[in-house]
Write a structure and sequence with these properties.
Length: 86
C-alpha cells in the first residue's frame, strides 16, 4: 500500500508542476514553441507565395535563357542506332 501512496503523491506533484507551467505560460504570453509554430507556418506560406510570384514572372517574360547544350548533342546521330526501352 505504501508504494501506491508514493505513486499517487508523485502523480499529484507532477500534476501540480504541469498546472503551474500552464499558468506561467499563459501569464507570460508567447512560449518558444508557439513562436516556432507561427514562424514555421508563416515561412511556409511566404515561401509558397514567393515561388508563385517567381513562376508567374517567368511565365510572363518567357524563356530568355540560352540552352546550355548544343542541338547536335541533344539529337541522336542519323547513322547510329538508338536504343529505346518500351
Amino acid at each position: 500500500m505504501n508504494r501506491d501512496q508514493e505513486s499517487l503523491r508523485e502523480l499529484k506533484e507532477t500534476e501540480d508542476r504541469l498546472k503551474e507551467l500552464c499558468l506561467w505560460s499563459r501569464r507570460r504570453g508567447w512560449t518558444w514553441q508557439a513562436v516556432g509554430v507561427v514562424s514555421g507556418l508563416g515561412g511556409g506560406i511566404l515561401a509558397a507565395a514567393v515561388g508563385a510570384l517567381l513562376s508567374a514572372v517567368a511565365w510572363v517574360r518567357g524563356d530568355e535563357t540560352k540552352p546550355t547544350s548544343t542541338p547536335a548533342a541533344t539529337t541522336p546521330a542519323k547513322d547510329k542506332e538508338v536504343f529505346m526501352c518500351h
